[in-house]
Every structure is written in structure tokens, then in C-alpha cells.
Write a structure and sequence with these properties.
By secondary structure, the chain is α+β, with helices and mostly antiparallel strands. It folds into 4 domains: 92 residues, Roll (Ubiquitin-like (UB roll)), CATH 3.10.20.740; 113 residues, Alpha-Beta Plaits; 62 residues, N-terminal domain of TfIIb; 218 residues, 3-Layer(aba) Sandwich (Rossmann fold), CATH 3.40.50.740. Helix content is 25%, strand content 17%. It has 14 helices and 22 strands. The chain has a 6-stranded mixed beta sheet with strand order 14-19-18-17-15-16, with helices on both faces. Strands 2-1-5-3-4 form a 5-stranded mixed beta sheet, sandwiched between helices. α2 packs across α3. The longest helix has 19 residues. The two termini are 25 Å apart. The model has no long low-confidence stretch (mean pLDDT 92).
Length: 537
Amino acid sequence: MSEKELIHLTIDGRSVEAPKGTVILEAARKAGIHIPHYCYHPGLSCVGSCRMCLVEIEKSPKLQPSCATPVAEGMIVSTETPATLKNRRSVLEFLLANHPLDCPVCDQAGECELQNYYMEHGRYDARFNENKTKKKKAYPIGPHIILDQERCVLCTRCVRFTQEISRTFELGVIDRGHRSFIDIFPGNELENRYSGNLNDVCPVGALTDRDFRFKCRVWFLGKADSICPGCSRGCNIEIHFNERFNPRYHNARVHRLKPRFNKEVNGHWICDEGRYGYHCIDAENRLKAPRLGKSGDSGKASWQDAIASVANSLKQTLEKHGPGGIAVLASPQQTNEELFGIRRLFRDHLKIENIEFRVPPVQEPYSDDFLITADKNPNSRGAEAFFPAGPGARKLLQDCSEGRIHLLFIFHHDLTLSFDSEYVRAALGKVDRVVLQGCWNHATAALADTILPAAVYAEKEGTFTNLEGRVQRIRAAVPPIGRSLPDLDILALLARELGVSAEKTPAAAFEEIAQNIGAFSGMAYKTVGNGGQLLKP
């Protein structure tokens, strides 16, 4: 942006630059100065109703709302004067006059702006001696959200979200003046595909998440930046996990997903399908140990035995049938580094050409013109960069059923979700050995001769490439469950057993990708950053 498009002003004695049209609150935030607020949200329209963000502007006769006042050249703003502090105390007293003392049982405790601002600006003796107003308490308004009207501060963020973002208009402000309250319109239910975001936009505990309710106090949660694997949009997320997890008292390590702002991808939002898909991380059907033999025929094996067995089968099949007797079904659920590891090992070293990654969906998946895409894989664009377009899994299964494939290596897919289960059973039954490397004990895993348990996205590092070609980092929030390992580690073990060198760390693998795959040239693992980096055309 050129110099003439920037506005120069002073906030709390600090020189600040901001683009023309920026409001004072945002200019201050980008300069590291926090101005308390409730109704303002950067992803929603401005209403300026809570009056918490009033600041002093030189030559202005009264306090001004920083959320609605654009910056001006030479403007001098003060956010911590006696007048602004008195205003904050007054607003807090007004909001808390009828607010229930629910903090001990409220899920928002620990991240509630009423609590935070009161401790910073309030701390007064209550002067309110009347009975507090009673409203509806903790009642479901949809499959994911519970509304507590007594906790509401009427910031109207939720109403604006349903009007401007989801465009479903379920919520409104009912009645006028001191009788006003937020409620769902009669005959409606909050069941749009983005309803979980209302818990994020609510600055207090009025709208809480039914899925997270009473599970864990937020101060026990750690977080890791990652990417939602639910579709090819690649929404930026935070994985919130229990830092004090103890399997004796808890049945899950990950407790929720939250959207992470990325202007170029998902803005401030994620869909409900992605938000609540985290349950698969600690699901009961996770594969936790290597297995030799079909389900029920044999028990768990050591990694050394499992890798040695698979390596021997690969060698024997190559000697007897050549590379054409082996087929590999990679997965666009895998990271770029893992897909490149498959390419290096199976295509470049073992000379196997029958490598597919496309599996047709059972039916036409839902998509919209906002965030949700029809492709339910996070890395189809990455897979396309490593493997040429082929006929797909349907042809691969046909080759199996006709006896042309003697060893089939499946990564992550449950083929029974896309094809008739009896057809899959019959086709895989014609293969001498089926190896499945994946995360869950599904129907295809039950048909495999060997199981290699793999880590899920929340348990490993790497990158995904979204539908627009943006390469984005995922980071481990929790260690792999049981004795499972990241795909890249498993591939490195198998390569070593076959006498082939292989990169074990995602950073080293990404460096190899940047050197060998033209679309990734010039990239570096560290410089991908939190915002991602676009592939070269």
C-alpha cells in the first residue's frame, strides 16, 4: 500500500499508521493497544451499541465510539483517561446489574469479557438492591447451541451473524427498552450449517456450545494451530486439547475446534461439520497397534515384525509378478509430505505405476457458495501435484477382482463407503495380500491382511494444499494414540527395511518437495507461515 493511502495518527502517545477507512479500535488493536468492547466484531457490521469502547479524541467535545469512528490524519486519541475509565466502569455496572452470578457453572468462565473487563476496570461495590430480572435459563435453540437470556448483554453479534453470514435469520431482538431480549423466532430452530459460530461470537455466556458444555474448564486447555480436514476449503482452526488429560478420568484428549482467522481462506468462521468432526480423533474405533492377519485371525504385532512382513511381501511380489502386480491407493487425506513419501518409495524406487488416490463419493456431497465444498478431502490439490490423473479406485478394484493385483496397499480409505461391500469383499479376496495403513477400524480394515495404524491430523505435522492451491501447515496437538505413528514415520520404517533412504521429518520432506515438484519451488517449510502460501501456476 502506498504512503498516501495511509493515515497517521497518535493513540496513547504512540504514532500509528492505518489504511484510510480503518476504525480507531482496529488501528489500536494492530498497534498492540486493546480497547474493551462487546458489540464490535471485525467480521460483522458495526452497530456501536454497547458503548464500552468510547475513547477521547482531541478537540472532540465528548467521548466517541472507537468501533464506529474512522481514523483521520493527525488525530490524537486517548484510551486510558479518567473519563474513558469512568465510562467503562459505568457500562460494566449497568451490564452486571441484572447479570446472574453463574460464573462457577458457566462454560464461558475463563474467556468471558464480562469477567475480564470487570477485573480490569470494575471492582466496585454493588449498588443494585432490587431483585434481578428473570428470563429463560439454559434452553436449547438448536442442535448445537444453548441460550441463556439472563446472561445476555444485547450486543446483537448473534443476530447480525444470522443476518449477514449464515443469512438464515433465526434470531432477533424481541421487545423494546429494558425489556429487550434475544430469542429465536417462533417456529424456528437454529439449525443452519454454521450455527456453532454463535458460541464464538458471543462475548459472554449467553450462547454456549452443547457439545462442549461442562466438559472442561478453558484454563486446562492448550491449543495448536491446524487446518480442518473436513473438505478442500482448508479452513484455519485451533485444536483445543486437555493439557491435564488423564485416561483414568477422561475419555477424550481433544475437546473442541475453534476457527482461526485467515482472510484469504475462511475469515473468522468454520462450518459445523468441520467444527464437530473432531470426535474422530479419540474415537473408540481408532487403530492403536499393528496387526498381522485378518481381523479375528491374528493378534497385535510389533512394528518391527509388521514392517518386516510387509517389506518381504513387496519383495516377493516384485520378484514373482513385477511392479505391475502391486497397486497403491493413496489418500488425499494425507499431507503433502506423506504423499511425496509414497511417490518416492513406490513409484520412484519400486517402479510401481498403478498408484491411485481418487475414490468416488457415495452420493453428491453438500456444498455451498460460502465455505463448504463438495470435495471432502483436505489435500486433493496436493495429491494432483504428485500423481498423474488415473482411472481411479473403480478400475483398481476391477483389476483386483480379475486377479491382476497380487498386493494392494491402501492408505486410509474405507472402500465400502463408495462401493458395494460384497463387491469390495470379493475383489480384495482375490488379492494375495492387502495392507491397510489408516486410522480407524472400519469395514475395509477388517478385510486387510495387515494393519499399520496411522496418526490423525491432530497428532502430526505437515502441510495440506487447499482447492485454491494454498499450502498450509498443520501442527500436532496431541501425541499419536496407542502405538500408532504418523504416515511419514511408517513410510520411513518401510523404506529402511527395503534398503531405501527416506525423509522422516516433515520439514526435510518438504524441502525435497520444493526441490523436485515445480509447483512447490521456492517454498520453505518455515516460510509457509500461518497464512499459507500459494502454489506456482
